[in-house]
Write a structure and sequence with these properties.
This protein is 41% helix and 12% strand. The protein contains 16 helices and ten strands. The structure holds ligand V47.
Length: 395
């Protein structure tokens, strides 16, 4: 089938003949989406106004079809997943009372505060039952007293106990906190972690870069520029990383668009981002939800899918887009595989951050259930390592 552009258009002819014609046809039929669709057809990049228009349109099927076409061109029917395990060594955090969206943090003496010993972390690391773990995903609070050596010892011990397992550890916010405690540079912290065996950085802590939003939800957290600088330095050292956006709170659609363009800008510079993960805000047991009246306003399916689809279209230089089933549910995550996603969060084993904030999804996903979820979407599951190298493919 070929797409016939209506005659009155001043847009250039489609340069990219492989773009899914049906998707284009759908998008061109919506005047709000037309400028973006014409750019995509001409092989041009989307700009800020295009991204805002995609969000504003709420035309989920048209935007989703465009994103799906882009994704299929890159990945065909493949969907990546990992046998991973989340470990949160401490929930003690110096930002306990300033990150309004967080339900996980505690002050050192507060009920529920914990800090694991190395032996306890190693014990928890052995808990995965359904498949051998290939990646430890380690994030936690900004503990006022834990030194860099706590983390380097932990990474070394995990690598010794589980040779071949990758360690994806510490958000940019934790890296910057350690640099402050150790009175050294981001680069020195990153080098020490890399020497200990770190493979990559997770994408947390980016939240929303827009100043007004950051002042409202996380005014004492690492500034957006510094989050970017940590990732820039990591990429320069050969440490790849992920990137995220926390959506569904006080941000505007313009804030979302700007955030994506800033991530795309850094990726143009370094090429070090592996995957982008939209993180859906959960409103329970945190100040934003409880005190500012946000409770009960968790994101819903259309917004979750639209965030995936717009990201796939705007982040044309980021290889993967991941759906995080603990946040949006396995059901929405499965559907997201037809809206631009080629990567599904893994087995997880024990998820704390979102469950503290009211997520009602399971704490972990059995390996076979993940494979079934992907197959159920008519896709080919590919178990990957942290660097997206295929480990096992299910035809
Ligand atoms: O930065 C905190 C988010 C992030 C809430 O790189 C919340 O593969 C929703 O880094 N509601 C940390 N979100 C998690 C993180 C992550 C998660 C999944 C995959 C990857 C990856 C990284 O969690 C924080 C913040 O944005 N968060 N509180 C909440 N109430």
């Amino acid at each position: 089938m070929t797409t016939t552009l209506p005659p009155a258009t001043s847009s250039p002819p489609p340069a990219d003949r492989t773009l899914d014609d049906r998707a284009l046809e759908l998008a061109l039929a919506n005047p709000q989406l037309r400028p973006a669709a014409e750019k995509l057809a001409a092989g041009e990049r989307l700009g800020r106004d295009d991204a805002v228009a995609l969000f504003e349109s709420r035309d989920l099927l048209a935007v989703g079809a465009l994103a799906d076409a882009r994704n299929r061109r890159r990945n065909g029917r493949r969907v990546f997943f990992s046998a991973n395990q989340h470990i949160n060594p401490t929930n003690v955090c110096v930002l306990r009372h300033t990150c309004a969206f967080c339900s996980f943090a505690r002050t050192p003496k507060e009920e529920g505060a914990y800090t694991r010993t190395l032996a306890e972390v190693l014990e928890e690391a052995g808990r995965a039952k359904s498949a051998p773990t290939r990646e430890f995903h380690i994030v936690g609070g900004l503990h006022p007293k834990l030194r860099l050596s706590y983390y380097t010892d932990m990474i070394r011990a995990l690598k010794a106990a589980y040779p071949g397992v990758h360690v994806k550890a510490l958000t940019a916010v934790e890296i910057a906190h350690l640099a402050r405690i150790e009175r050294c540079s981001f680069r020195e912290v990153l080098l020490a972690l890399k020497e200990a065996g770190l493979t990559s950085l997770p994408g947390g802590g980016a939240e929303v870069f827009g100043r007004a939003v950051r002042m409202t939800i996380a005014d004492r957290k690492l500034a957006g520029e510094d989050w970017l600088e940590v990732h820039r330095q990591a990429h320069a050292l050969g440490i790849p990383s992920n990137c995220t956006m926390l959506y569904g709170h006080v941000e505007t659609l313009q804030d979302r668009a700007e955030h994506l363009l800033i991530l795309r800008g850094l990726q143009d510079e370094t090429g070090g981002f592996l995957t982008y993960i939209p993180l859906a805000y959960h409103p329970d047991h945190n100040a934003l939800g409880e005190e500012l009246g946000w409770r009960g306003r968790a994101t819903m399916g259309v917004d979750d899918l639209l965030n995936i689809a717009v990201a796939r279209l705007v982040l044309d230089n980021v290889p993967h887009v991941k759906t995080h089933w603990p946040m949006v549910s396995p059901f929405i995550s499965q559907v997201a595989l037809d809206f631009g996603c080629d990567d599904l969060e893994g087995t997880v084993v024990y998820e704390r951050v979102y469950h503290e904030a009211g997520a009602s999804t399971p704490m972990e996903m059995n390996y076979d259930a993940l494979v079934d979820l992907i197959r159920g979407a008519g896709k080919t599951p590919v178990e990957r390592d942290s660097l997206y190298r295929p480990v096992r493919t299910f035809d």
